[in-house]
Design a protein that fits this description.
The structure holds two protein chains of two kinds. Chain A is mostly beta strands. Helix content of chain A is about 0%, strand content about 55%. Chain B is globular, with a radius of gyration of 13 Å. The N and C termini of chain B lie far apart (about 40 Å).
Amino acid sequence: DIQMTQSPSSLSASVGDRVTITCRASQGIDNYLAWYQQKPGKAPKLLIYAASTLQSGVPSRFSGSGSGTDFTLTISSLQPEDVATYYCQKYTSVSYIFGQGTKLEIK
Amino acid sequence: QVQLLESGPGLVKPSETLALTCTVSGGSISDNSHYWAWIRQPPGKGLEWIGNVFHSGKTFYNTSLKSRVSIAVDMSRNQFSLKIMSVTATDTAVYYCARQPSSFWFDPWGQGTPVTVSS
């Protein structure tokens, strides 16, 4: 089975900082990757699909890039409401695997 | 706007069967563009896909759970359901249902329902 590895596992940054989270697949998955944001006590929310397509209603400070095995989620200017855990998820071959998550906090 | 809502017992005894229902509103479960999925999250841990179902009844399951899991659709009630047999403490989790466009990503999600396996 393909494994998804996120880094870092946790991250602390200041308001206004540019933040980057990485997700690596153990095998190539083209662009079959989604990113989710999960705030404490809430269900995950879809941010990005097809590696770089922003879901409707998601602020434009979020962006995604990558293809094959290496992907990134970038927040261009961190806001207090972005405190959450972020997950990547691959969707190939009827197998849906999530990364272990990256917990983002404000300094 | 499609909304999903999970329901079912919050406490299940070890070796018994966990049974949950997801009710879909604002859209039809017979939509040809979407699958319907269950995902779970143990306390303090990450997300695990359990399985999904199409309105035809076609199902796909996580191989690690396949021998104990059953997912079914009830089009008359616009619902789909999850059953996990022979549960243990490791099945304690928040269980989410979600819609899956063309069996790809998950959106939207239900609010989640916590299930504890304990005697």
